[in-house]
Design a protein that fits this description.
This protein has 217 residues and is of the alpha+beta class. Helix content is 33%, strand content 19%. It contains 6 helices and 7 strands, in the order βααβαβββαββαα. The strands form 2 sheets. A 5-stranded antiparallel sheet has the order 1-5-7-6-2. A two-stranded antiparallel sheet has the order 3-4. A hairpin with a 6-residue loop joins strand 6 (130-136) and strand 7. The longest helix has 22 residues, at 174-195. The two termini are 24 Å apart. The mean pLDDT is 89.
Length: 217
């Protein structure tokens, strides 16, 4: 069995940047309103669920309040541009980090302990920027969704390991930025593995991810 943890970032509008880049690909076609409606199991937004059930809030605020908090962050955040001038966020700015942690139903007997260990890891990692953790049990595997929002005035990158690493690389060489992004996301997976998944006998990656390029081999 393998761990599954993933993060994605969202704005009120889909980014108009090149969505083929690793930095932006994860947000393609989704926005804050849509993922909150899916979370709440609004009928037209959960077609993939055969028998939708009410989600359970395990930590923090309700789904509706998550969306309210993203608007508060957007309306009360100005960032300084390269010339030192304060600028309001763009309409397609990312305002919400959303993630999912799942467990194979075959080992569902450990789910209650596993999700508590996961929530502790989330609290340690994101602090009070973690605003909500919600459980779904109506899909193939039990899972929790978690949601993080920066503090007013902070750059969104403070939440996303990959995006932060991407932007910290100076210059315009895209391959260096992409490499930094990839390495940071690998470190994110490693951290979850060492602090949560390994304690339950799970492996870090599935068989498909174990295939290496000639250079890596």
């Amino acid at each position: 069995m393998y761990q599954f943890v993933r993060i994605q970032s969202y704005g009120f509008n889909t980014s108009k940047k090149n969505l083929k880049e690793k930095y932006n690909n994860e947000t393609k076609g989704r926005n804050v309103s849509e993922i909150i409606k899916e979370l709440k199991r609004v009928p037209e937004f959960c077609d993939h669920v055969a028998n939708p059930e009410e989600p359970t809030v395990l930590y923090g605020v309700s789904p509706d309040e998550i969306e309210n908090l993203t608007h508060d962050y957007f309306n009360n955040t100005k960032l300084v541009d390269s010339l030192g001038r304060p600028r309001a966020l763009r309409k397609d700015a990312q305002v919400l980090l959303a993630g999912v942690i799942s467990l194979n139903r075959e080992i569902g007997m450990i789910w209650d302990d596993y999700k508590e260990s996961s929530i502790k890891w989330l609290k340690d990692k994101y602090g009070d920027r973690l605003v909500s953790v919600v459980q779904h049990l109506d899909e193939e595997h039990p899972h929790i969704h978690f949601y993080c929002i920066p503090k007013n005035g902070e750059r969104f990158d403070v939440l996303h390991d990959g995006k932060k690493a991407f932007n910290e690389v100076g210059g315009k060489l895209k391959y260096k930025k992409e490499k930094a992004y990839t390495e940071a996301m690998r470190a994110f997976q490693e951290d979850f593995f060492l602090n949560v998944a390994a304690g339950y006998g799970l492996m870090k990656t599935g068989p498909r991810r174990q295939r290496l390029s000639n250079a890596d081999y």
